[in-house]
Amino acid sequence: QTWIEASARMPGLPRSTWINGIEPSRNEEGTVYVAINNYRNDDFTNYVYRSADYGATWQAITNGLPDRRGG
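RE: above sequence
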């Protein structure tokens, strides 16, 4: 197995963020979810992504999540 830098493939993700969690799908091979935060830079935006091709491409899946910015 080889690790790759995936953050550049995540649309809208700023630099200097932190990984909250990584969770592989239990039902779909090659699918993984990642939650990322940037609160250390006063950015409380939700950053949640999904890859269905072993991390080759990523889609933001924050649609419908409550907006945490500003309280």
